[in-house]
From TrEMBL:
<keyword id="KW-0130">Cell adhesion</keyword>
<dbReference type="Pfam" id="PF19699">
    <property type="entry name" value="CLSTN_C"/>
</dbReference>
<dbReference type="GO" id="GO:0007155">
    <property type="term" value="P:cell adhesion"/>
</dbReference>
<keyword id="KW-0106">Calcium</keyword>
<dbReference type="GO" id="GO:0051965">
    <property type="term" value="P:positive regulation of synapse assembly"/>
</dbReference>
<keyword id="KW-0472">Membrane</keyword>
<dbReference type="GO" id="GO:0012505">
    <property type="term" value="C:endomembrane system"/>
</dbReference>
<feature type="domain" description="Calsyntenin C-terminal">
    <location>
        <begin position="341"/>
        <end position="682"/>
    </location>
</feature>
<keyword id="KW-1133">Transmembrane helix</keyword>
<keyword id="KW-0812">Transmembrane</keyword>
<feature type="region of interest" description="Disordered">
    <location>
        <begin position="679"/>
        <end position="740"/>
    </location>
</feature>
<dbReference type="GO" id="GO:0030425">
    <property type="term" value="C:dendrite"/>
</dbReference>
<dbReference type="InterPro" id="IPR013320">
    <property type="entry name" value="ConA-like_dom_sf"/>
</dbReference>
<keyword id="KW-0966">Cell projection</keyword>
<keyword id="KW-0677">Repeat</keyword>
<dbReference type="GO" id="GO:0045211">
    <property type="term" value="C:postsynaptic membrane"/>
</dbReference>
<dbReference type="InterPro" id="IPR045588">
    <property type="entry name" value="CLSTN_C"/>
</dbReference>
Length: 740
C-alpha cells in the first residue's frame, strides 16, 4: 500500500518516481528492484481557456477579433445550453464611449439635424462668453463638458433664445448625475425660464428631483381658461447612476416624449395647472439654476444643479426625428461579430443599443466556441481616444435534468487602444503679394488665398513583432476639418472702409457655414479638406478707402476634432501700391510751396537767372523734393572733386617749376625786364568774367546754406592760384643779349 502524507498538486509536480526493494526475514535483498511511477492527473476546472488578458488595438484596424483560440472546458460534463455575455466598459471615455469630439452644432449637421438649434453651452469665447464663469471638465480629449457644483450658473443673454416658444420644440443634452445629497433632496435645475423682476413665475424648466426628471411647461392664458398639462415626470435608473446619458425631450403640446440613449420613455405622471396670466415682465433664461427675480429682497440664483452637462441646446418650432436622435448618441466604438452568416441559425445573439454588451446563446458547445472566436472590438474613429477599455465575460451553463451543474468563472480582461499617429496639417500658398489700390477698391476686391493648399501627413512606423524598428517617410492622408479661422494681425478692420467677403453660393452643397466680424472670419463645419480649400480660395478683401492704408496682414489656422489637431499658422502679407504723380495736370493751377517762395524772394537779381523758370519748376510732392536735393548734392560733390583735382595738379606744377629755378644759376647782370601793362589788364578782366560766371552757376545750383559756403571757399582757393599764375606770367624775359 502507498499513500501520500500531503495533498498532491499537478501544478507543482506532474510525476513521482521511486524504487522498491524487497527483503526476506533474514534481511536478504531481492535480486532486482522495481521502479514505481505515479502520474498526477490535473484536476479539471470548467471555464474558458485559450484567451489573452491583454489585447492591443491600433487605429484603422477595423474589426479585430478578441478571442481567436478560445474554447469552453466542461470537464466532460454533459451540457444542454450555454449563455455567454460580454460587457465592454467605456464609461471613463468621453461621454460614455468614444465619440467624435466635434462641436454639438457640427454633429447635428452631420446627422442631418436642422441648423436652427441654439447651443446654450457653447465654448466661452467671442460673443458666447456667458459660459466663462462655469467650471469646465478638461479631463477628456477635446470634449466641451461643464461641471456644476451647486454654486455656479449662467444667464443666457437676451436675444439668444426667442421669448415665446411655440407648441413644438426640442431640448437635448448630455447629462451625468448622481444621487442628490442630503435626506430631503431639493430641485436641481438644468434649464429654467423665469420672470426677471417683480414676480417669480417659471414659464418652462427642466430639472431633477429625487432621481426623477421633470419637465415644466406653463402656457399663457388665451381664450380658453382651463387646466392644462403642466408637469411631466419620469422615474429612471439612468438619472442617478453617475454615467453619461443622452436626453432628448420632444414637445408636441400637449404630448411630451423623452428619449434616453435613443430609447423612448413615456411620463409616468402628468399634472395639470392653470395657465399663466400675460404680463409685460421680461423673462430670464438660465442654465444650472433658476433665477428668482421677485418676491425676495435681493434677486439671486436658486435650485442649483449638481452634475455635468454638455451639448445643451433648444431647437425651436420643430421636433427631432428618431433617426437624428439615434445618430447623435451612437458610439464610435463597441463590440462586433465577424462573418455572421457562417454561424447559421443554431446560435442566437443580440447587442444593446450602444453595442457595449453582446449576448451569445446556443445548445452546441462547438458552435458557441466558434461564435466566441468571431467576437471582436471595433473603433470607427480615424483618430480614436487612446486608453484602456476593460471587459468582462460571464457564462451560465445548464445541464440535462440535474440539480447541480458546473460553474464557469468570469473573465476580466482589457483592450489597449494605442495612441494614434498624430497628423501634421500644413497650410501653404502665396504668403506675400502686392496689388494696385484700384484692385482693392473695386466691387470684387482682391482674393487673399488664390493658390492655397491644405494637406495632412503622418509618419508611420514599420512594425515587426510588435516593435517599431524605424520610421518610414511622411505619408499623405485625407481627413475632415471642423473649422478654419482667418484673423486680422494688427488693428481690426474698419467696417466703414474695409471688409472680408465670402459669397454664400460658395457654401452650397457643403456642410460649412461662416461668421464675419472686424476681427476676422471663421469658416466652420465638418467637411473635407478639399471643400475647405475651395471656399478659402474664394475669400476676398475689399478696401474702398486705400489712401491711408499701405498693407494688411492675415493669419490662417485650421483645426480637426475641435482643436485636438491644429495646423501651422499661415501668415499672409498684402501690400497696397499707390501711384505717385510726379507732375500736376496741365490744366490745374500750381501752388508754390511756402519754403520755395522764401528762397525765390531771397535770390539776387543776377544776370542770366530766369525767375519765371524758377517759378514754374515748383516741386509737387515731398518725394520729388528729396530727389532734387539728392541730385543737387551729387552735382556739388562732383564739382568739388574736379576743383580739388585741378588745384592739386597746379600745386604740383608750381613745385616742379620752383625746383628748376633753384637748379639754374642765372647771370642777371645784363638782364632787362619789360612789363606789358595791357596784359595785366586783360588777365584781370578775364578773371573777373570767370568769377561772374561761377557765381551765376552757384546761384542756379543752390541747395542749402552749407553748399554755398563750401563753394565760396573753393572759389577763393582758385582765385589765389590764378593770381599766382598771373604774376608769373607777367614776367617777360628779354633774352636777346643772353649767351647760350
Amino acid at each position: 500500500n502507498i499513500r501520500n502524507t500531503e495533498k498532491l498538486s499537478y501544478d507543482k509536480e506532474h510525476q513521482y518516481k521511486f524504487m522498491v526493494t524487497a527483503y526476506d526475514c533474514g534481511q536478504k535483498e531481492a535480486a532486482e528492484d522495481v521502479l514505481v511511477e505515479i502520474e498526477i492527473k490535473p484536476v479539471c476546472k470548467p471555464g474558458w481557456q485559450g484567451w489573452n488578458k491583454r489585447t492591443e488595438y491600433e487605429s484603422g484596424s477595423g474589426s479585430k477579433a478578441l478571442f481567436s483560440n478560445i474554447h469552453l472546458e466542461t470537464c466532460g460534463e454533459p451540457v444542454s445550453s450555454v449563455q455567454t455575455r460580454i460587457d465592454l466598459q467605456t464609461s471613463h471615455i468621453g461621454k460614455g464611449c468614444d465619440r467624435d469630439t466635434y462641436s454639438e452644432k457640427s454633429l447635428q449637421k452631420l446627422c442631418g439635424a436642422s441648423s436652427e438649434s441654439i447651443n446654450l453651452l457653447p465654448a466661452p469665447y467671442g460673443l458666447s462668453n456667458w459660459t466663462s464663469g462655469l467650471l469646465m471638465d478638461n479631463g477628456h480629449d477635446s470634449d466641451l463638458i461643464f461641471r456644476f457644483d451647486g454654486k455656479h450658473a449662467a444667464k443666457i443673454p437676451d436675444g439668444v433664445m426667442p421669448k415665446n416658444l411655440s407648441d413644438q420644440f426640442t431640448i437635448t443634452t448630455w447629462m451625468r448625475h448622481g444621487p442628490s445629497p442630503g435626506l430631503r433632496a431639493e430641485k436641481e435645475t438644468i434649464l429654467c425660464n423665469s420672470d426677471k423682476t417683480e414676480m417669480n413665475r417659471h414659464h418652462y424648466a427642466l430639472y431633477v428631483h429625487n432621481c426623477r426628471l421633470v419637465f415644466l411647461l406653463r402656457r399663457d392664458l388665451d381664450q380658453v381658461d382651463t387646466f392644462r398639462p403642466a408637469e411631466f415626470h419620469w422615474k429612471l435608473e439612468q438619472i442617478c447612476d453617475k454615467e453619461w446619458h443622452y436626453y432628448v425631450v420632444n414637445i408636441e403640446f400637449p404630448v411630451v416624449t423623452l428619449y434616453v440613449d435613443g430609447v423612448t420613455y413615456d411620463p409616468y405622471l402628468v399634472t395639470d395647472d392653470w395657465p399663466i396670466h400675460p404680463s409685460h415682465i421680461d423673462m430670464q433664461l438660465t442654465v444650472g439654476a433658476c433665477w428668482q427675480g421677485g418676491e425676495i429682497v435681493k434677486p439671486r440664483f436658486a435650485q442649483f444643479f449638481h452634475g455635468s452637462l454638455a451639448g445643451l441646446s433648444i431647437r425651436p418650432v420643430k421636433i427631432e426625428s428618431r433617426k437624428v436622435i439615434s445618430c447623435l448618441q451612437t458610439c464610435k466604438e463597441g463590440l462586433d461579430i465577424n462573418s455572421l452568416e457562417s454561424l447559421g441559425k443554431e446560435i442566437k445573439f443580440h447587442f444593446n443599443p450602444a453595442q457595449s454588451a453582446l449576448v451569445i446563446e446556443g445548445d452546441d458547445i462547438d458552435i458557441v466556441n466558434r461564435a466566441m472566436q468571431l467576437a471582436a472590438y471595433i473603433n470607427s474613429r480615424q483618430f480614436p481616444t487612446p486608453g484602456i477599455r476593460r471587459y468582462t465575460i460571464s457564462t451560465k451553463v445548464q445541464c440535462f435534468g440535474e440539480d447541480t451543474c458546473i460553474s464557469i468563472p468570469d473573465i476580466d480582461a482589457y483592450i489597449v487602444v494605442l495612441q494614434p499617429v498624430e497628423p501634421k496639417i500644413t497650410i501653404s500658398g502665396l504668403d506675400h503679394f502686392s496689388r494696385p489700390a484700384s484692385e482693392f477698391e473695386n466691387n470684387r476686391g482682391v482674393i487673399l488665398f488664390p493658390g492655397l493648399r491644405i494637406i495632412s501627413t503622418i509618419r508611420k512606423g514599420q512594425h515587426n513583432d510588435g516593435k517599431v524598428h524605424r520610421f518610414a517617410g511622411p505619408e499623405e492622408i485625407v481627413h475632415n476639418l471642423d473649422y478654419c479661422d482667418i484673423l486680422i494681425v494688427g488693428d481690426e478692420l474698419n467696417s466703414e472702409e474695409e471688409c472680408l467677403e465670402l459669397e454664400s453660393i460658395e457654401l452650397h452643397g457643403k456642410h460649412l457655414e461662416f461668421t464675419n466680424s472686424t476681427a476676422g472670419m471663421s469658416v466652420y463645419g465638418v467637411d473635407s479638406m478639399a471643400n475647405y480649400e475651395h471656399v478659402l480660395r474664394k475669400l476676398r478683401y475689399r478696401n474702398w478707402e486705400t489712401a491711408s492704408v499701405f498693407g494688411r496682414r492675415f493669419r490662417l489656422t485650421c483645426s480637426e476634432l475641435n482643436g485636438r489637431y491644429t495646423s501651422n499658422e499661415f501668415n499672409l502679407e498684402v501690400n497696397v501700391l499707390h501711384i505717385i504723380n510726379l507732375m500736376d495736370h496741365v490744366n490745374h493751377a500750381v501752388v508754390q510751396p511756402q519754403f520755395l517762395q522764401s528762397i525765390h524772394h531771397s535770390l539776387p537779381d543776377l544776370p542770366g537767372h530766369n525767375l519765371n523758370a524758377a517759378h514754374n519748376s515748383v516741386i509737387p510732392s515731398a518725394a520729388t523734393i528729396v530727389i532734387v536735393v539728392c541730385i543737387s548734392f551729387l552735382v556739388f560733390i562732383i564739382v568739388l572733386g574736379v576743383f580739388r583735382i585741378r588745384a592739386a595738379h597746379q600745386r604740383t606744377n608750381r613745385e616742379n617749376e620752383s625746383g628748376k629755378e633753384n637748379e639754374m644759376d642765372w647771370d642777371d647782370s645784363a638782364l632787362t625786364i619789360t612789363v606789358n601793362p595791357m596784359e595785366n589788364y586783360e588777365d584781370q578782366e578775364h578773371s573777373e568774367q570767370e568769377s561772374e560766371e561761377e557765381e551765376e552757376g552757384e546761384e542756379d545750383d543752390i541747395t542749402s546754406a552749407d553748399s554755398e559756403e563750401s563753394e565760396e571757399e573753393e572759389e577763393a582757393e582758385q582765385e589765389e592760384d590764378q593770381q599766382n599764375v598771373t604774376r608769373q606770367e607777367q614776367l617777360e624775359w628779354d633774352d636777346s643779349t643772353l649767351p647760350y
